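Lab notebook page, bench 4
Experiment: in silico fold of construct C2
Operator: M.H.
Input chain length: 139 residues
Purpose: comparison with the prior construct
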Amino acid sequence: MIQGELIDQLILSSSLDSLSQVEPFISRFYGNHKHVEGCYGNILIALTEGLTNSILHGNLSDPAKQVYLHMKIESPEVSFTIRDEGKGFDHTSIPDPTLVENLEKLHGRGVFLMRHLSDAISFEENGTTIKLTFIFINS
């Protein structure tokens, strides 16, 4: 059982190659807290989508900029904050990828996936910061 708060962080370069660090980061958390059931896939996919958006759209793949991933565990939830060094975006203006006119588009599903895979999502600092929360059950 997790008591109190645990914090970990990861700093990524603005390159899609840096996404290879995300799974080991999540695996460390998951390996230390095996009672977290059913969250691993949702966390991994949601974080990968958020970090990809931060790298490509936030930082525009600028090698001089970084993306920050911060993890906070406070039972019964784990939250991840993704922050980039870009100008931000209006999350309310993203088209719904489930509408017929958007079904064949190759992009535009990241925020949709993050919303549906996490238990809560918030956009802060003009969209440069995204907080994803996952609720787990202690056994």
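Observations: Residues 67 and 84 are 5 Å apart (CA to CA). The first strand starts at residue 5 and ends at 13.
Next step: discuss at group meeting.
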